[in-house]
Write the structure tokens for this entry.
Amino acid sequence: MDAARTVELAHVHALVQRVRDGDRESFIVLTRLFQRKVYLLAYSFFRNHEDALDIVQETFLRFHQKADLFEEGKNFQNWLLQIAKNLCIDLYRKQHKKDQENLLDVPSEEVQWGDGDTKTDPTHSSDLKDIFGRCLSRLSERQRLIFVMRHYNQLPYTEIAQILNIAVGTVKSLNFKAIQNLKALMSPYVGVQP
């Protein structure tokens, strides 16, 4: 570990200790340091700004409530992203259950079963960023999450593996599959062969 990273970790740990002691400013500093990474993680789950912001808010609320549970010497970012990931999974399950219940209330002849919704068809968007976002949302949850953690949050494979509690080889494999699937999904729109 290089000296700059060691100093950075010591600074973060000192801030966490001050939060435990009730220092509001340290909490604000930590929030500013990590809110973007938490947002990107949450956004990768839901592709929805409001849901992602709710997760950010809830993550930092949980951190404030459970700061005493953070173990000295551990990676704070991994710990915080683990909280965010768990909150994302909980919210996803709640929303999915609600969607299933709502679907049962709709007569089957009113349910649209095909790809008839042209509003979600990426060919109607000239914005490459929008097309990429739509393709990213079509990946499996695990592939999307790992892709975002690796390429947006710049986390090393080892940290992703710790956060998700899976093997490093699995992380690498899922990241590779995510990239291959994105290439395949993007190829009709950008002229690249998968």
In short: The radius of gyration is 19 Å.
